[in-house]
Amino acid sequence: MTNDKNQLGNYLKKLRGNLSYREVARRSGNKISHSAVAQAEKGINTRGKSFVPSPDTLKELSKVYHASYDDLMIRAGYLPTATNAKTTPTFDGIEAAATTKWETSHEPLDVYGKITAGIPTFADEHIIGQTIIPDDLIRRFGRDNLFALQVNGDSMSRVIAPGFIAVFAKDCGIDNGDICAVLIDGENATLKRFKETSKAVILEPESFNPIYKPLIFPKNIDQDFRILGKYVFATSLLQ
What we know:
Structural class: alpha+beta
Number of helices: 6
Radius of gyration: 19 Å
Helix content: 10-25%
Strand order of the largest sheet: 4-3-5-6-11-7-8-9-10
Order of helices and strands: HHHHHEEEEHEEEEEEE
C-alpha cells in the first residue's frame, strides 16, 4: 500500500512519535496488541491483505495518543468526511448541508429506535430518522438486506459509541467473533459479539462499563434468541 493511500496509517505513525509498538500496547493496558498497532500503521495485515483497524482499536489508540476518536473514525472511513459545508439562516436557527467523500446511495436507509416484540420485520412507527450509507454496502449485501439501529446503550462501547448508527446485513453467514443485532426473548434487541462453542452460544459485551456480563445460552436447553443481522458499518449521521 503506497503512502498516499495509507493516510490513516501515516497519521497514526505521526501520533505515535518515538513510542515503540509495545509501549503503545502497554499504555492501552494491553487492550490492543503491539502487532495490531503495527498493522494499523502499515494498512496491511499479517496475511498481506489490505487492513483497516476496527473502531475498538481506534478508540484505544485515540486514548493513548490523546487524539480525536471521531477524527480517526473519519480517516478510517467509518464516518464520512464532510466537504463544501455551508449553512443557511432560517427563522429558528440555521440549516447545514455538506457533501461527503463517500460514494453514497441515492436513497437513505431508515433508522429504527427499537424492534417490535416477536415481529421479524421492522414497523414504520419505530423509524426515528434516516442515514446515508456507502454504495459499496448495497453492492455487497443488497439494499433490502440492510437495516440500521441507533445504539442507545453502552454494552458495546468499545466498538461503537452510544448514539451512533449501526448498520446490519440480514441473510448472511455469522461467524465466531462477528458482532450481531440479537433479539432476546422475542422482545429485547441487543448488540453483542457472537461466539459459539460445542456447549453454548455466548453473546459477549465489549464495554468500558464493567457491569455488563456475557449472555450464555446452553445448547441443551431451548435458546430463546434470534440473530437479526451482522454488524457491517457505523456512522454518526442521523437525519
